[in-house]
Amino acid sequence: MVTLLVASTVLAFSDVSRLIRNGIDTIVGSTGYSVFSSRDLAEFLERSGPVGETDELVLISSSSKDLEFRHAIDLLHALLKIQARAPVPGKVRLGWFAAFYRDAMSFVRDDDYVAVRDLLASPTGEDAFEAFRSTAPGVARAAGMTDENQASWQECIADFLTQKVLRAVSIRKEIRPDIGSMYHLVVNGRAKRVVLLADGLVINFFAKHEKGVKTEYIDPIVTMQVLSLVKLSTNAVALGLHKMDTHLRVEDMRAFWNVVNENCRPLALHD
After folding, report:
1. How far apart are CA 187 and CA 167, in angstroms?
2. Considering its fold, how many domains does the chain have in total?
């Protein structure tokens, strides 16, 4: 869907949840700060999506950092480790599950949701587990918590929730060298795909073969910036605007870029 705005109109949103629920399929982060929370990812995973098609969300960073989508990336990687049955300590897994329940992820919302959410929202010590057995005895029994295995209650809950997530979610990561990472999920029977262009890094410098800004072009520019800072820090420069042609010779710049171009020719493609 493309929405045409009046010229010079900019729409700013402090919360993209409603937009995600309404079906947007691309989010571009340009601030260098987190613009997409795990709760936003939850909204995408929960929405119905197009009938008979895989619901897709594309995440693109155009800043100079990799922070815009960090929360979502961490959540997806946690799901991958759960899917792979990675040997992760129960305490670490409970941290993941606490975030899932805090953000009310659709794949953990069932009859046990409130009891488990309240347990994970508190420090998971012996007193908390004892209280949990009293307030949610059925869930505690299902998790295998008994008087005899009190020392392993933390692992019991972690294993119980691991199986719960595995029943509701499947995930597979695909790496496309010139695209980035693609996460294929099925959540409560709904097919989803999250495309993380350039693996969440700034896209300008990611793709090869003439699709991104070449390192050979950027390096000399950054070098000139550094040299300019050195000049400014070691020499007194009068305030005001200065004509660059008094400091740079056109023939020198032309020779400089000719060398760069010579070493950065487009690929010659042959049948």
Report:
1. 9
2. 2
